[in-house]
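Hi R.,

Quick one: here's the Ferrochelatase sequence you asked about.
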Amino acid sequence: MARVGVLLLNLGGPERIEDVGPFLYNLFSDPEIIRLPTPALQKPLAWLISTLRSGKSKEAYRSIGGGSPLRRITEQQARELQSRLRQQGVDATSYVAMRYWHPFTESAVGDIKADGVEEVVVLPLYPHFSISTSGSSFRELQRLRQADPAFRRLPIRCIRSWYDHPGYINAMAGLIAREIGNCEAPDSAHIFFSAHGVPKSYVEEAGDPYQKEIEACAALVMERLEQLLGHPNPSTLAYQSRVGPVEWLKPYTEDALRELGEQGVQELVVVPISFVSEHIETLEEIDIEYREIATEAGISHFRRVPALDTDATFIQGLADLVHEAMAGPEVNLDMAAQLPKKVKLYPQDKWAWGWNNSSEVWNGRLAMVGFSAFLLELLTGHGPLHALGLL
Ligand SMILES: C=CC1=C(C)c2cc3[nH]c(cc4nc(cc5[nH]c(cc1n2)c(C)c5CCC(=O)O)C(CCC(=O)O)=C4C)c(C)c3C=C
Ligand SMILES: [Fe+2]
Ligand SMILES: [Fe+2]
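And here's the predicted structure, written out as tokens:
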């Protein structure tokens, strides 16, 4: 029997307050999170944004006990999945690969090689594919594989997304049904799916399938829930956690909550749909910020369905996914990261006159150069603006 390494991908989170700044710097250094036309500006901008954001982020992490529980929960999921697979006769060892904090992807790959694993199943702990999450981790793994012949030789089977897998859908519907059971009026409780957002351009310009997968997933969960409860409930899907000035997927969670309040909704059951573990966005953003907004909007009963964490049906669902991947063909990282349509992922370089893609790119580049020069002058205290007496 082959020794199988099950590589679980996740985002990672700061474990202590001092980690918040460096964690944010790693996150914003990733071109899959902020896409700049000029790669040389990625690191300076990551430094600037992480410095500006870290106060707000630190406050949020302080309010949930000083750090993210993501590593602890992901490692627990990994242990439970490993023992489930071993009980089912698979010689499996699970590994956790975080994208922006410890244990980093590189160290998980080092452990896989040291343990003499013979084949790898890559399982993102994101049910829905997004360029910014699974896509980014697949690319990171691709870079490591290209640089390392020993890793490249290992057969690899990647699971791209699993938003419609019965194990996951059943587990989600089961948790929601339990929460509905605690409601004052179970038949009319409003189910509110709050998914993590992404910038709208990811979907409309880069062809990110994330929104489609979220919508299909919410519909499947509602279908299964109706079977479990024996009645339909009203539902809403909205997107949370917007960062920065650009437009993200809509409706935004805060706006949808206010609208439901205006419509007279009294009892809300919030479902964190794109997350499979508790973390800052569930514990702080939903439980504290959105609860406050909902209460102000007149929603008197605000309940939140817990994240799946180590729910037994969910862990069995993950084990099924691994079995199915092992029985199927090799799926390499390129295949897993592929987008359905190639739109303007990296903007064109060729110059063309007029108000078009190319002029937008050059406007962007010139603005970035100007902005960096301004930043440099602010930091050093020397430059043309000082010479002119403007700074
Ligand atoms: C499906 C899940 C996620 C998507 C999609 C996603 C996209 C995305 N996120 C940011 C910016 C930030 N994300 C942060 C933390 C964070 N995000 C996710 C999940 C998704 N992100 C997780 C699991 C975590 C870690 C949470 C923890 O407990 O530590 C943060 C840091 C926290 C904060 O300051 O709010 C930022 C910033 C962008 C820009 C983006 C899409 C482009
Ligand atoms: Fe995020
Ligand atoms: Fe957030």
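The longest strand covers residues 4-10.

Cheers,
M.
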